[in-house]
């Protein structure tokens, strides 16, 4: 089953209980920036976050390659090199540590941004990727005034190592309860 950009925005609206576009209006403007564009911004942020996490786990689906040329820019979807390569990237510009090579370099790539597609374009992303991206975008939308989303990310299994969930404290509380 394929999904269009509009379908994905509708899914995010369902996840944040805004199907009538009351909280995030369909338009959006400089005076009232909430709108479809803001949801697209959250979706793009979610794509970047999800891609970075999957790439850091070494997910082979995020591998790509290019032939580096000294002085050229790295691809737009470039995250980081896969393995050790004698290449440095400064400001998105390729430079070699030694003699230039014509061999392809493998790198981890970001998924395409959702905003890069037109409203009715079918998205090339896998269904599981889209579901995770939609859930992340919903977290960002619901927490737009909050800056710490670690608890929400933990619910998606994307939290910091060690969880991040509150730990129950035993001791005095239990003793007081037993004494009454």
Describe the protein's architecture and organization:
With 180 residues, the protein is of the alpha+beta class. Helices cover 34% and strands 12% of the residues. The protein contains five helices and five strands, in the order H-H-E-E-E-E-E-H-H-H. It has helices at 5-15, 36-56, 127-142, 150-155, 172-179, and strands at residues 63-66, 78-81, 87-90, 93-96, 105-109. Strands 1-5-2 form a three-stranded antiparallel beta sheet. The protein has a two-stranded antiparallel ribbon with strand order 3-4. A hairpin with a 2-residue loop joins strand 3 (87-90) and strand 4. Helix 2 crosses helix 3. It starts with a helix and ends with a helix.
Task: Write out key terms for the chains shown.
180 residues, 34% helix
